Amino acid sequence: MLNQIKGLHHVTSMAASARTNNQFFTDTLGLRRVKKTVNFDAPDVYHLYYGDEVGTPGSVMTYFPFPHIAKGRPGTGEVGTTVFSVPEGSIGYWGERLASKGSLELKADEAFGEKRLNFFGPDGDGFALVEVKDDARAPWTGNGVDVDHAIRGFHSASMRLRDEGATVELLKFMGYEQVDHKDGVTRLAIPGGNGADTIDIETMPNIARANLGAGSVHHIAFAVENREKQLEVRKALMDTGYQVTPVIDRDYFWAIYFRTPGGVLFEIATNEPGFDRDEDTAHLGEALKLPTQHAHLRSYLEQHLEKLEG
Q: What domain of life does the native source organism fall in (predicted)?
């Protein structure tokens, strides 16, 4: 069993409108945009990152906003719900805030003894807020949500699978332990993780596979401290039979990817070097940052990418 993985690093999804996406995460959820860059493989599309003050691993939601993309069809073989941690007693505040910002289909419930509020993002993305006692992670409060209610980072992610068996075994190999099973959901967690260290598996054997589109999670990334730990994980996964990509430099972390038995795309990402490698912390996410191979496109991109504000 591996011990290098500490929980989630980031979750990457797809959207239709970059401006709507930016407004939802910064204005409605109160997160900080920590990076404004472009998709490495499609540089005419943004890659937007939202999180806490510095984009701490375990707090970062990222998006590829493809203009005119079709809406995704929910189903199995995907991350269904991305869950954020909020302080105890704050669900009422968030229900009022989300309703005032136009969010529909809010649903308060309880799962595994935790109070939660389920809601949808602008593209039909599945989200929830869960009340967590004594989450010590520092929140970002620069967008109008006070410290007593602000999001602390991820709490968990929920995957919808037709058969949980092989994916549960994979997660156990990655360092997760099964901690509960209730109402058809298996909960796994990493002891002593980074706070974003829980995964729920929903088994839905009669549900069709998902179709990727706006509102869909593209991949889910798990955090390791550095490149050395990442290489250890890569070797162990390959020795187990997984087809893992070479290490890819994503400017703010190094990444490897592999497809899981249930169909979800996993990434293992390093905590280093971080989002402040090319911007001062006080100004994260303000300027358009381009990978070296796309720097020559700056003039074109600055004219043609959708304006996020204004």
A: Bacteria
**Tally of domains in the chain:** 1
Kind of pairing, strands 265-273 and 217-224? parallel
CA atoms of 107 and 217, how far apart (whole Å): 21
How far is it, in rounded angstroms, from Cα 7 to Cα 59?
Answer: 11
CB–CB of 76/290 below 8 Å?
Answer: no
In Å, how far from its chain's centre is CA 101? 22
CB-CB contact of 33 with 18 (8 Å): no
Instruction: Confirm whether 139 is domain-assigned.
Output: yes
The pLDDT tens digits of the residues spanning 85-144 come to 999 999 999 999 999 999 878 999 999 999 999 999 999 999 999 999 999 999 999 999
| H, E, C per residue of the chain | CCCCCCCEEEEEEEECCHHHHHHHHHHHCCCEEEEEEECCCCCCCEEEEEECCCCCCCCEEEEEECCCCCECECCECEEEEEEEEEECCCHHHHHHHHHHCCCCCCEEEEECCEEEEEEECCCCCEEEEEEECCCCCCCCCCCCCCCCCCCCEEEEEEEEECCCHHHHHHHHHCCCEEEEEECCEEEEECCCCCCCCEEEEEECCCCCECECCECCEEEEEEEECCHHHHHHHHHHHHHHCCCCCCCEECCCEEEEEEECCCCCEEEEEEEEECCCCCCCHHHCCCCECCCHHHHHHHHHHHHHCCCCCC
Please tell me the distance from the alpha carbon of residue 14 to that of residue 30, in angstroms, as a whole number. 19
* Residue range of the domain that includes 153: 8-304
Contact between 222 and 174 under an 8 Å Cβ cutoff? The reply is yes
How buried is residue 29: exposed, middle or buried, by Cβ count under 10 Å (0-12/13-18/19+)?
A: buried
Question: What are the pLDDT digits (tens) for 165-201?
Answer: 999 999 999 999 999 999 999 999 999 999 999 999 9
**pTM exceeds cut of 0.85:** yes
CATH number at residue 76: 3.10.180.10
